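ok so for the tutorial part 2 we go from a plain amino acid sequence to predicted structure tokens. step 1 is just haveing the sequence, like this:
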Amino acid sequence: METVELLETVARGEDSRHQFKDDVTNAASLAGEIVAFANSGGGQLFLGVANDGTIHEHDAASVDRLNQLIGNAASNLVRPPINPVTENVGISTGVVIVVTVPDGISKPYMDNNGAIWIKSGSDKRRVTAREEMQRMFQTAQLVHGDDVPVPGTSISDIDLDYFRRFFRSRFEQELEEQDLSLGQVLSNMRVVRNDTLTVTGALLFAREPQVFLPVFHIKAVCYPGNDIHATTYLDSADILGRIETQFDDALGFVLRNLRREQGGQGVNSLGEIEIPRIVLEELLANALIHRDYFVSAPIRIFVFDDRVEIMSPGHLPNNLTVANIRSGNSNIRNPILASYATKVLPYRGLGTGILRALKEYPAIDFLDDRDGNLFRAVIRRHPLTASA
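step 2 — the prediction. this is what the tokens look like for a chain of 388 residues:
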């Protein structure tokens, strides 16, 4: 970094990517700052710059001490260790040390006491909420929401007849032909852990999943006009049951609240649904399979006069963007659930569902709300005309 660039950066003040410290004497405190940057996209720490932007450059002895302190903190007081890059930038009669911390690839990083820090504006804060910790481990692919055991469940909660039919379809064998107990089969399929159903096991096979997972369902409302009304609606439903049932009932809800268009068909024809069925199937399947099961909230479907919105808890995982998914890229958040979904939903698991939907009906917008931890698919409806 050149001196001019440093001065320009300092003049802009502190933010989530740039932090100023006049001096540092405590390696543990420095480790916390490094951890916060590594967990939050990376950034730069300027040693020799006060919070108000006043520059107090360091002499040679101080530079040597600080570089040793940085190395000790990053190597011994950060777990897993990371390798920040230091640069000594000459200012007037001394030096400002610029410590560049890259975005970590082994998140979440912790200090020596096991505390997880992230950036909050120009400061840092400790992560204490369970859901936030879970999401960080999820991002690092150390844990998946679909693989979490569901307290209070057991193998006896499975609809055995339904599971037999699924097993026959998935493995082309009869369940009774296996030289294994039911518990061993379910454990091998990774839908049971220690005789407890996982989220995948409950959502796929339990008789009444919402007894144990009450928020993992779909809330659907059809409103008059183009806005949410507090008390007025045309149709509403709380859609419960296994994932297959939720899919079928949600699809039915949307279809019954859409118009049919005559187009070039005869007067005795039912007409074609205004939004192709395959579009709704792809987007509903994606919502059920790829939602964040660490977020305690239902999927929501709103039908308005001018659009249909499907809102999934959880923003796009990791570094996936709307542009990525429009190009056919994918990142499977719930790998176990996705591996079995092809037998209960019209889902192929190849990252092509969004492409198929857009090919059939391009009037779809996707909004990745990272602050609200929500992903929204907005399907625009055709304007109502006299001939529609």
